[in-house]
Amino acid sequence: MDDGITLEELQLAARNHGLPLESVREAITPVGLHYLLIHFDIPVVDAGSWRLQVGGLVDRPLELTLDDLRARPARTLPVTLECAGNGRVLMPPRALSQPWLTEAVGTAEWTGTPLAPILEEAGLGDDALEVVFTGIDRGIQGGVEHDYERSLTLDDALRDEVLLAYAMNGEPLPVQHGFPLRVIVPGWYGMTHVKWLRAITVVSEPFTGWQQAEAYRLHRSEDDPGEPVTRMLPRSLFAPPGLPDFFDRSRSLAAGRCLLEGRAWSGFGPIVRVEVSADGGATWADAELADEQPEFAWRGWTFTWDATPGEHELQCRATDAAGNGQPETAEWNTGGYCNNAPQRARIVVS
């Protein structure tokens, strides 16, 4: 196989979209610019007849309407979501899937009701181990027909910040983002945030559905069982400065002082440091972090670069409070997941 994008990848790229990098200047991503990945088809849902089923190992199974959920205590959280496959194309040999560069991310204000009180109201069985979230969307992947389903351990599902979200940026959840209801699990990669939610099931065994047991695992080889993908690794992005070339997106910039703006995030704790390199990673300097650090959303940063004539490779890298940083090169895996190597941009200064 050559290195060109396949027809199958092109079809995926036409259905899904990423965040224009210049939009990282905004703390909250407009709905139309937020990254989007849709595994199967967008289902048609009638909000009036839709019901959320809460069952499995519970004492009191629940059936909730959208009005029931909206009537419950609400919480709004700014949350950064990143696709686990972000950067896949930059991890050769690449996995054949959605061909993301670095743009599969966005931050929205999600409004919904916390999940934990609903599970407590249903009454958890003594043998409860995991909570399975089932979407309405159904399709075939890996030769297996299935609903899109993911699970969380009971401890993770009961965290205060896990929401059943029905609004995005103050408006009803758009159909492409999971109308009428989706799960929001702050800090975790996007595959966890099940859209078009129809059922929540408490189980006593580890969930082995295809999207849990086969996909979203760090397989180092085809026969490696792999480790599951969970929380987002630290990452930083900046808005490339200067004027873009239409086709290859290279940048042209006039010499002089240039303010770089970016955002950084991690699912393992707040961002405590961002560094910038203008010489391809040979030397690094600290950026200035914004005072505001949302608990579950990206943190802004700026860096003043004295741009000198010539060709430069800008990079940025972040470190979180747990000590996790961005490696020069991410470890390869068969799915192209969790590539948090530094963003690189070629800038020609004249």
Number of helical elements? 5
CATH superfamily of the largest domain: Oxidoreductase, molybdopterin-binding domain
Categorize the overall geometry. globular
Overall number of structural domains: 2
- At the fold tier of CATH, the topology name of the largest domain is Sulfite Oxidase, Chain A, domain 2
For the record, give the distance between the C-alpha atoms at the N and C termini, rounded to a whole number: 39 Å
CATH structural class of the largest domain: Alpha Beta
Mean pLDDT: 96
Give the structural class: mainly beta
Order of SSEs: HEEHEEHEEHEEEEHEEEEEEEEEEEE
Low-confidence stretches: none
The CATH architecture of the largest domain can be given as Alpha-Beta Complex
Rounded to an integer in angstroms, the radius of gyration calculated over CA atoms is 21 Å
Q: Into which percentage range does the β-strand content fall?
A: 35-45%
Residues in helices, as a percent range: under 10%
Number of strands: 22
The strands making up the biggest β-sheet line up spatially as 14-15-22-21-17-18
Major sheet: size, sense and barrel closure? 6 strands, mixed
